């Protein structure tokens, strides 16, 4: 044990007590080798943070390239070669360059079986035997039904003016007030349009776009043929509707109290809804089931069923309406459902949508039984 050295002489008989040295106060801190380790860790963390701050963002996850699209081109010696880029578009691709900013969806060339649908008690198809159809060229079709605002911009008439036109014309739907008022608003579909008026709308829109230089040479707006309409409605499906073999009021605007197949019953709204209120099909096209019946410009199948619109005058030409409407039961709103209608017919459940097609490259849908 360490003691302090005495500062005076020690003689005989002197008692001496050892004096304990007070312990030295220890400074706070780590031993040198611990200090070096901690400094190294802090330096590593600082460098890592700086590197992560200046590091470029990680690349997006790898996605395989889509299959290359090809286009058959016929080359004639001495003639310039032209390729229609529209044919390279994908199903559901959208465009909206016209004066109305009307959105159109691309429908590519393809094949499908038209008609068929559900079978009746006798085992026969209610909408006729299905038969193959070839869509030889792609086309654009309205993403939505033509709205009241679009109608007014092109035709210069409001819905009320349209409804009041030519009161002597036959009203196949009668004077039933429930059906004579079906919703008004800019985004609601136009109705009370005859076939000729729908054709006139397409003609005027084509002229407006052509004069403005926005319409490609050889392309024109018109009503879709029945085959084009069903091809666009199906969007690659083979079921009764674009959403499967059931149809409930969550998918379309119709008399929801009478759904199709095993779909749950829903409300009956008793009027149209703004376009796009319900889900679109696989190609992004909305309201092909219900809301308003839609005019088609050519009947592509024999023996088309006749509905309540028909038989105003037997001598009056007929065209087809497709898709059902807001007051129809579910089985009248399928992909295959169509009725023949006099071209001068009007009603609160009758509208249309446009198609944009090539007059030079388009060949009418060919079918064989």
TrEMBL record:
GO terms for molecular function: formylglycine-generating oxidase activity. Residues 106-355 form the Sulfatase-modifying factor enzyme-like domain. InterPro entries: CTDL_fold, Sulfatase_Mod_Factor_Kinase, SUMF_dom, SUMF_sf. Gene3D superfamilies: paralog of FGE (formylglycine-generating enzyme). This is Sulfatase-modifying factor enzyme-like domain-containing protein. It comes from Singulisphaera acidiphila (strain ATCC BAA-1392 / DSM 18658 / VKM B-2454 / MOB10).
């Amino acid at each position: 044990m360490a003691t302090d050295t005495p500062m005076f002489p020690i003689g005989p008989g002197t008692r001496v007590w050892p004096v304990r040295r007070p312990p030295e106060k220890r400074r706070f801190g780590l031993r040198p080798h611990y200090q070096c380790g901690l400094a190294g860790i802090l330096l590593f963390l600082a460098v890592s943070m700086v590197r992560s701050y200046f590091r470029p963002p990680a690349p997006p996850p790898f996605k395989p390239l889509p299959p290359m699209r090809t286009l058959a081109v016929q080359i004639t010696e001495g003639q310039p070669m032209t390729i229609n880029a529209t044919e390279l578009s994908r199903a559901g691709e959208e465009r909206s360059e016209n004066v109305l900013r009307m959105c159109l969806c691309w429908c590519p060339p393809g094949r499908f079986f038209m008609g068929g649908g559900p079978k009746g008690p006798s085992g026969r198809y209610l909408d006729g035997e299905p038969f193959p159809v070839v869509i030889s060229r792609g086309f654009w079709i309205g993403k939505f039904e033509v709205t009241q605002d679009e109608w007014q911009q092109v035709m210069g008439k409001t819905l009320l003016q349209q409804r009041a036109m030519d009161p002597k014309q036959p009203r196949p739907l009668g004077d039933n007030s429930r059906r004579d008022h079906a919703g008004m608003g800019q985004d609601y579909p136009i109705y009370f349009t005859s076939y000729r008026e729908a054709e006139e709308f397409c003609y005027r829109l084509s002229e407006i776009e052509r004069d403005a230089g926005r319409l490609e040479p050889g392309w024109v707006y018109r009503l879709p043929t029945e085959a084009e309409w069903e091809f666009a409605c199906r969007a690659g499906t083979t079921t009764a509707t674009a959403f499967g073999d059931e149809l409930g009021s969550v998918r379309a605007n119709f008399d929801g109290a009478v759904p199709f197949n095993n779909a749950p019953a829903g409300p009956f709204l008793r009027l149209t809804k703004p376009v796009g209120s319900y889900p679109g099909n696989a190609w992004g096209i909305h309201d092909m089931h219900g809301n308003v019946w839609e005019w088609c410009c050519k009947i592509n199948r024999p023996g088309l069923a006749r509905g309540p619109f028909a038989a105003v005058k037997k001598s009056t030409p007929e065209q087809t309406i497709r898709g059902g409407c807001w007051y129809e039961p579910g089985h009248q709103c399928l992909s295959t459902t169509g009725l023949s209608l006099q071209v001068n017919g009007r009603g609160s459940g009758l509208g249309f949508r446009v198609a944009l097609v090539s007059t030079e490259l388009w060949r009418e849908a060919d079918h064989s039984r």
